[in-house]
Design brief:
Protein name: Isopropylmalate/homocitrate/citramalate synthases
Distance between the termini: 68 Å
Pfam families: DUF7219
Radius of gyration: 18 Å
Oligomer: single chain
Helix content: 55-70%
InterPro entries: DUF7219 (IPR055643)
Number of helices: 3
């Protein structure tokens, strides 16, 4: 019998989507962190919905994950400003 590839299991449990934004190493890393956050929130909400953990425990875990995501954003130096597209006039031009 053929042994299953461990990467198949990893890709099944933790799928990654392509990144379509502006390519910078820090945005690519943050995108991976954001996808991991979303995946973990999905697991936590499923555990809470099925009664395996309490709503308070789910909230605390998601809150901790959110703080971790915010910290990674700050450490990567990603700003809150949205990049402007070529078709939009700058806000002060209106």
């Amino acid at each position: 019998m053929e042994q299953p590839d461990p990467m198949d299991k990893e890709n099944f449990l933790y799928p990654r989507s392509r990144y379509y934004g502006q390519f910078k190493p820090e945005t690519l890393v943050f995108n991976a962190n954001l996808q991991q956050f979303a995946q973990k929130v999905g697991y936590i909400t499923s555990l809470e919905t099925s009664g395996k953990i309490s709503a308070i425990e789910a909230y605390n875990q998601i809150k901790a994950l959110w703080k971790q995501l915010k910290r990674s954003k700050k450490e990567l130096g990603i700003s809150d400003e949205q990049p402007q597209s070529d078709s939009e006039p700058p806000p002060d031009a209106l």
